[in-house]
Amino acid sequence: xxxxxxxxxxxxxxxxxxxxxxxxxxxxxxxxxxxxxxxxxxxxxxxxxxxxxxxxxxxxxxxxxxxxxxxxxxxxxxxxxxxxxxxxxxxxxxxxxxxxxxxxxxxxxxxxxxxxxxxxxxxxxxxxxxxxxxxxxxxxx
Length: 141
Known about the structure:
33% strand
């Protein structure tokens, strides 16, 4: 059975305390917020992998921090002043983005690592011992 481990903090102006399973937690409708990038979270036996679609950003443009058990991911890219695209539809950011995820005391923050491959930022979040405990069966006597 899949259980949800993290809470998407969303933007600072919203209070999103939703879990990942069952519906898309990042937006209620099709339009994604302008400064938001899509993420996938994969749960492995000993860690979680957060895949952040950050196409168009160099790894030097990306910052990852953990504060008060919240993972903050942001990207800032400098564009020429005369670059003003006339979007008929914009679904991913071109200048900056930000995401935050509450780690819910499930991750050993000291061992977090990241790599950037083909426009996808992959953040490895090692589970702490509490998160590795899946289920305990209690025998009824």
